[in-house]
Amino acid sequence: GQQLNQSPQSMFIQEGEDVSMNCTSSSIFNTWLWYKQEPGEGPVLLIALYKAGELTSNGRLTAQFGITRKDSFLNISASIPSDVGIYFCAGLRTGANSKLTFGKGITLSVRP
Amino acid sequence: DVKVTQSSRYLVKRTGEKVFLECVQDMDHENMFWYRQDPGLGLRLIYFSYDVKMKEKGDIPEGYSVSREKKERFSLILESASTNQTSMYLCASSDMRGALVDTQYFGPGTRLTVL
């Protein structure tokens, strides 16, 4: 099935830095979700976005639903070592039987 | 908080064995999903269910079947396990938001190795 575009595959940052991740698609989505997955665990929902233009924060995380409905970004401010993990974006279209479309994820490493 | 649990965190089986992966959610969610996750391929949907006794094929259903006899439980079955089914298996559940499928919540995953 179609996948969302997330790049680069890996990011390396210094503790305390801010980092921004983008997720793009050629199709429109009605819901954008951001998940974080730590090694050996399932993905955990970070932020859900339901409306174009919506900007939502969860602690040091901020995510936005793009105006075109074809993209979303996630910002992490003042990174800490426990931010390491894989960050997935996912999109959902309108429809009772709709399925999530996932990006392949970005692996974030934070150097102390 | 939503809780999705999976019966095993790690499982080792032999080629040809029948394998059952169980998933239980405690939030009365309508929808349940099974994915597999492989390096470089991301999350791929195997099967999903929008109601008890109802199932639909996802993107990669071959070699798998599912069962949903009760609303809270969704089982993934590998009829005859093969080495290419070695993977991380993730279960998820979601509610309906009006007429729309809502956000999915994931279990911790089962790392299956088929020898």
The greatest interface here is: A-B, 27 and 27 residues
Distance between the termini of chain A: 38 Å
Q: How helical, in percent, are the residues of chain B? A: under 10%
State the shape of chain A. Answer: globular
Mean pLDDT of chain A: 91
List keywords for this structure.
heterodimer; A: 112 residues; mainly beta; 10 strands; 49% strand; globular; B: 115 residues; seven-stranded mixed β-sheet; four-stranded antiparallel β-sheet
Description of the molecule:
The complex is a heterodimer of chains A (112) and B (115). Chain A is an all-beta fold. Chain A contains no helices and ten strands. With 115 residues, chain B is an all-beta fold. In chain B, strands 2, 4, 5, 6, 9, 12 and 13 form a seven-stranded mixed β-sheet that branches. Chain B has a four-stranded antiparallel β-sheet with strand order 1-3-8-7, with no helix packed on it. The model of chain B has no long low-confidence stretch (mean pLDDT 91). Chains A and B meet through strand 3, strand 4 and strand 8 of A and strand 5, strand 11 and strand 12 of B.
Quick summary:
The complex is a heterodimer of chains A (112) and B (115). Chain A is mostly beta strands and 112 residues long.
What topology does this entry show?
The complex is a heterodimer of chains A (about 110) and B (about 120).
Chain A: E1 10-14, E2 19-24, E3 31-37, E4 44-49, E5 55-58, E6 61-65, E7 71-76, E8 85-92, E9 101-102, E10 106-111
Parallel strand pairs in A: 1-10
Antiparallel strand pairs in A: 2-7, 3-4, 3-8, 5-6, 6-7, 8-9, 8-10
Chain B: E1 4-6, E2 10-13, E3 19-25, E4 31-38, E5 42-49, E6 56-57, E7 65-70, E8 73-78, E9 87-94, E10 96-97, E11 100-101, E12 105-106, E13 110-114
Parallel strand pairs in B: 2-13
Antiparallel strand pairs in B: 1-3, 3-8, 4-5, 4-9, 5-6, 7-8, 9-12, 9-13, 10-11
